[in-house]
Amino acid sequence: MYPNVSLKIKNHIPKIIYYPEEGLEKTLTFQNESIYEVVVPIAKKLNLINRELIENDPEILAELFDLARQSDELYVTDLPEIEFESLEFDLNKVLNNLLNDIQEEQLSEYEGIDVSQELKDELNKNINADIFASLLEVMYMTLIAKTLVAASDLGIGTIKLDDKGKNARLMEKMAVELEKLEVDMIVDPEDYEIEDIEQIVE
Known about the structure:
Distance between the termini: 22 Å
Number of helices: 6
CATH architecture: 2-Layer Sandwich
Order of helices and strands: EEEHHHHEHEH
Structural class: alpha/beta
Mean pLDDT: 89
CATH topology: Nucleotidyltransferase, domain 5
Number of strands: 5
Largest sheet: 5 strands, mixed
Radius of gyration: 18 Å
Low-confidence stretches: none
Strand order of the largest sheet: 3-2-1-4-5
Number of domains: 1
CATH class: Alpha Beta
């Protein structure tokens, strides 16, 4: 369906692309910021990776996304506003700034309390997965919101999710947000399992 604006994620790099008609495209974002290179270091900071990683580990993102799906993505409630001066996602900056703010608040909870570092680590261990899930939700909302802004600026009412990573949570969130705004969404069935698409449709 043309014209459309596409959120394309290939080799973990998200781009917003405008397709005025079949065979024509215009890239609207130019950063080559890898979701892998943003998410994996954050997971390491939160001690969520307990094994030695090989370079560009093909399984680790799937494992981390699955962990987030099992955690509380609403744990962090004080979220930053999305900056719309540019369509660039700036995921590394957004997520790491938020993580730093969260960790500073955590440290302040222990001020004046005589507890060992070991106990602090144990207390934090139970909430790090929730923090991680909340950060991923911010990432998804940033990707979706900036794609929506690009479509709105162009007067386009159809958005395509072209995600080679087949992230079901991103598809779910985009479907919900676009439905609220009565924006049409296109998904290539080959990018997702049939049951994933059926769940969204229902």
